[in-house]
Design goal:
The protein is an alpha/beta fold. It has 15 helices and 14 strands. It is globular and about 60 Å long. The protein binds pyridoxal-5'-phosphate.
């Protein structure tokens, strides 16, 4: 069958593929430990669930305006000013079916053939595809693994051409957990400003920084008006399945995204929008409780990984991922022909030990593997025991 060329420009999501693989192995009766999940293991807090039930009883079960209800946009305004020191008008805010949908729509609204868009490696798997499907070209810039994966600035400057139109920043990052310093952010924005580039700041992990308070990029550089801020209810409120994310920034771009949304999904889910109002405005204590649990798990997994001979793992300052480096283990095994890359190790870990992880090559880093610690301490410890056993066997 001859499908449209644009489909050939994108790949299936590697992380969703691993989640499917875990489910398949589990259905075969295997004792699977899933360390690949990109979502909190907590249930959505009860006050949010109750708000959704109430919304249904109140008849909020119909189409809403394409870009989201006025109530939710006002709740977002309040949240942004309360948590991020950001002040946006209602016409500068759009609600989408998840942050992913927002990012996709913004790329569609701004990028096209012959444009180049800067993406920092290691990157979230979807960024290159969001760019490629528009016909634009993703251009990859290296980062420093020993410094929270902040940009290598010489590389950034050398990759900008007259075709560069945008730059995507994701701090805290998926897959590395890296959190950039204010200085690194300001320097990046200065470079973007000098070339008049659009800056996407994907802040979906904004509530998950462990060693320093989160600072939204636009609050640091509010004199640059080509910054779009993307946030989401997914990770903060354990609401991944509800599909509510939002974007704030230039009203023309927001309007364009809204037009696109109106002709594709019509509107985000009405019930989830009412639940999101409660998430953003109601009791915030569950956010702190979940963050405390994640921080404890981060400390456990990082120290356990570093105790394995040949594995190095810097302390990520945010999100719920670690991204250890296995180069030494790979080099050690090259002669034995067992493992040539982190992908081989990742597959072996799955086949021999039933531990699901995501190989770094999906994120543009072939010596690393991403483990999510959005799972219980018992599972984390058992998974690392199995990894350690595998490495000593090979
Ligand atoms: N951005 C990053 C970096 C992510 O890791 C994810 C989800 O994994 C998203 C955006 C999208 O999340 P959602 O669409 O659930 O808001």
């Amino acid at each position: 069958m001859k499908l449209a060329k644009r489909i050939g420009r994108i790949q299936p999501s590697a992380t969703l593929a691993m989640t499917a693989k875990a489910a398949e192995l589990r259905s075969q009766g295997k004792d699977v430990l899933n360390m690949s999940v990109g979502e909190p293991d907590f249930n959505t807090p009860a006050n949010i669930i109750n708000a959704a039930i109430q919304a249904m009883h109140n008849g909020h079960t119909r189409y809403t305006p394409g870009g989201g209800t006025r109530e939710l946009k006002e709740a977002i305004q309040t949240k942004l000013s309360r948590d991020n020191d950001l002040n946006y008008n209602l016409n500068e805010i759009i609600v989408s079916s998840g942050g992913k949908h927002s990012l996709y729509n913004a790329c569609q609204a701004l990028f096209e053939a012959n444009d180049e868009v800067i993406i920092f490696t290691p990157y979230w798997v979807s960024f290159p595809d969001f760019v490629s499907i528009t016909g634009a070209t993703p251009v990859f810039v290296n980062t420093d693994p020993l410094n929270q994966y902040q940009p290598i600035f010489n590389d950034l400057e050398s990759k900008i051409t007259s075709n560069t139109k945008g730059i995507i920043i994701n701090s805290p990052s998926n897959p590395t957990g890296g959190v950039w310093s204010d200085e690194a952010i300001k320097r990046t924005i200065d470079i973007a400003r000098s070339k008049s580039l659009w800056v996407f700041s994907d802040e979906c992990y904004e509530q998950l920084t462990y060693d320093q308070p989160f600072q939204s990029i636009f609050s640091l550089c509010s004199d640059y008006d080509k910054i779009l801020t993307f946030q989401s209810c997914s990770k903060t409120y354990a609401m991944t399945g509800w599909r509510i994310g939002y974007t704030c920034g230039n009203s023309d771009v927001i309007q364009a995204m809204s037009k696109l949304q109106g002709q594709s999904t019509s509107c985000p889910n009405s019930i989830a929008q009412f639940a999101a109002c409660e998430a953003l405005l109601g009791d915030q204590s569950s956010v702190a409780t979940m963050k405390e649990a994640f921080q404890k798990r981060r400390d456990i997994i990082v120290s356990r990984l570093n105790a394995i001979d040949g594995v190095t793992c810097d302390v990520p300052r945010g999100a719920f991922y670690v991204f250890p480096n296995f180069k030494e283990v790979i080099n050690r095994n090259l002669n034995g022909n067992n493992i040539k890359s982190a992908l081989d190790l990742c597959i072996m870990l799955l086949e021999r030990k039933s531990v699901v992880s995501v190989s770094g090559e999906n994120f543009g880093a072939e010596d690393n593997i991403r483990f999510s610690y959005a799972t219980s301490e018992a599972i984390i410890n058992e998974a690392i025991d199995r990894l350690q056993a595998l490495i000593s066997e090979i």
